[in-house]
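The instructor's notes for this session suggest beginning with a concrete chain rather than abstract definitions. Hand out the sequence below and ask the class to guess, before any prediction is shown, which regions might be ordered.
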Amino acid sequence: MSNIPETGRTSRVTVRLIAIQILVFSLLLTLGGRLWYLQIRNGKEYANQARSNHVQQVIDPATRGSILDARGVPLADNQTRLVVSASRTDLLKIKDHGKAVLARLSQVLGMPEEEIRNKVRLCDAKTPQPCWNGSPYQPIPITDKATTQQALQIRERSEDFPGISAEPTAVRRYAAPGDANSAQVLGYLSPVTDDEITKAKDSRSPLLRSDQIGRSGLERTYDSELRGKAGVTRYEVDNLGRVIGKAKSDRAVPGSHVITSIDARVQAIAEKELDQAQKDARNVFDKNTGTNYKADAGAVVVMETQTGRVVAMASSPTYDPNAWVGGISGKDYAKLTGKDSNYPLLNRAIQGQAAPGSIFKVISTTAAVNAGYDFDGHYPCTSAFNIGDQVFKNFESENYGAISLGRALEVSCDTVFYDLAYKQWQKDGGNNPTHPADWFYKTAHQFGLGKETGIDLPNEVRGRVPDRQWKKDYWQANKDGWCAQGEHADDYVSKIAKENCESGMKMRAGDSVNYSIGQGDTLVTPIQMATIYSAIANGGTLYNPTVGKAVVSPDGKHIREIRPTAHGKLPDSPKTLRQIGDALAGVATRGTAAWRFGGWPQDKIPMHAKTGTAEVYGKQTTGWFATYTKDYTVLMTISQGGTGSGSAGPAVRKIYNALYGVDDSGQIDEKAALLPKPQASLPKIESDGTIQAQPIKPVSETLPDEEEGQQE
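After discussion, reveal the predicted structure:
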C-alpha cells in the first residue's frame, strides 16, 4: 500500500515550493523597488545624465603667451602657419566615409594617401601610430606646413573637400633675436601624458592629447600663465554620433606674456663669448696631459648685483629649441640625448656641478675671520705645506712670504688657507673630535652652498658641502665597495680605497686642507657662486636669482611684477665684506686677474675679480672666473679648459666691454654701451595689450685675436 497523497506531493516538496515562491516574490519586490527608485524618485537626475551623454566637447587650445626679454623683444612667441585639418564627423557622413576626399587631398598636399588616412584614424589598443588619440569630434591636423597655394586650392574647391579645413594656426617659435638662442633658459614644449590630462580635466585649462606643455626652463616654470584657458565648443549628437545641434560654448582665453630680465643683446654676446672661449682653449696645450684642452662644456651667468635678476645665462653645448616644435624627430632626439651628445639639454648654469677651486676662498676667508683670525694678520705663503709625509703644493710653487688674508686672495695663495684649515682642524679635535666648531663647513652652508638658490627655473641641483655628516653618510653607502677594492692595495686607486674603507667616515686633515681651497669633494653650481659674489658686492644679501620679471595679461590690463626676494645674509660683518671687496679689486688690478683687465677704467667702474682652477681626477682642470661691479656680476666656468683667467678671462672682459661700452684702451663710449645700468622699468605696454620692442642686430661674426698663455 502506498502512502503518497493524491496531490503527489510530500510535505518536504511543499515546503520547498513555498520557499521558492517567497524567493521569487522577494526578487520581484526588489526589482519593483529598484525600478521605482530609478524611474520615479531619481528619474529626473538620470534623465539629465542621459541627455548629457549626447553632448560632446571639442576643446580649442588657447594661444600660448610670449616670453619676452627685458626690453620687450620676443624670445619665444607664436608663428602663424597654415594647418590643414580633417573633421572626422563630416567625413563619416559621406557615403565612402571620405576616402575619395582624402585621395584628392593627398594630391594637393603631395603626401602619401596612406599617411593621411593613418593620421585621421582613431588610436586604440590595436592601432599603432600614426593615429589620432584626441577627441573624435576635434579637427584632426594633417599638416602644419601647407603652402598658401595649397590652402587656396582647398578653400576655393570646398565642394571637393568637405570636412577639410585650411586655417592659419599659431605654433610655437623660438625667435633667437640677434642670435640669442637662450635654449636652456627658455626650455621647450612636448606632448602631455595621460596623467596630466586626467589632472587637468577639471582645471581652468583642460588638456587635449595633442596638446603640448612646458617641459623645462621658463616654459615649464610659467606654464600655467603662458598656457591660458582653453575654449570649449559643445555639440549635441545622436546615438550614432551625428551632430544634431550646438550647445553653449566657452571662448578660449589666450595665455599671459612673461617678461624676463634677460637682455637679448647681452644674452647673444654671452653665448658667443662662451663658445669662443671654448674654441680658444682647445688651441692651448695642456702640459699635464700632453694634449690640448678639451673645453667640452661651460656656462656663464650675468646677474644684476643689487637684485639677483639674471641678465644673461648660457650653457654649452647648446641646441636649437625649435627642434621640438611640431614634435621632435627620432634623429634629433638622439642628437640631444645620446651618449655622444654631451647632453645639451642640461642647463649647466644651474645643473652643472664641479669643484670651485680658488673662487671658494672668499668663503674660507670669512670662516677664518669668524674663527678669530685677523684679516690683516701675517700668514706664511710658502711654496708647499706638509702634513706628515703628504705635501700640498702652492699654485706653481709661488712663495710670497708672510702676507695678509687680503693679499692671499689677490695672489691666490693656497698654503695660507692650508695652514688655517689645518690649525682649525686641530682645534676641533683632529681625528678624535668632541665638539668641533667646524667653522669652514658651517660658513659654506651660511653662504648658501649645499642647497638650491631658489632660481625660477626647474631642476636646479644643490651641489655638495662635504661636512662631517656627509662624510659619514657617504662612507656608509660606499664602505663595502671600498673594502673589497682595497683588499689587495697594489695600485694608487686601491690604496685610496683601502684608506677610505678604514677611515672614510672621519674628517681627516687632508680633507680639511683640500676643502679650504675649493677642492676635494666640494661641488658647486655656477648660479650658486654668482649669487655669492653678488651678495659680496651688494652688502651681504643672498637674493633668489630670478629670470621672470613680470606676468602681463593678454589685454595688458593686469601686470604682476615678480619682485626680488632673498633667502639669507652672508655671515660677514660690514668690515669683513669691505676688506674682501678691496682684496677682490686688488685681484683685478695687481693679482691673478690683472693681466685680463689691463687698461680697464678702474677709477670709473671699479672691477672686482677672483680666479679659480679646480683639479678633477681623470680629467683636465676646470677654470672659473668670478667678477663683479656695482651693477653686474659675471661668472664663467669652462670644464677641461685650463685656468680660470686663461680660459674664461678674455670672454668675461668682452662681456663687460659690451655692457659698459669700454674699448681696448679703456675709453668709455656711452653710445656703444649696451646696458650701462640695469633695466629697471618694464617695456611699454600699449592699451590693446601689445608690447613695444625695438629690433636688435645679430652679434658680429668677427672676434679679435685672443691673447695666448695661461695663468690662474
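Then share the key points. The chain has a mean pLDDT of 88. The longest helix spans residues 11-41.
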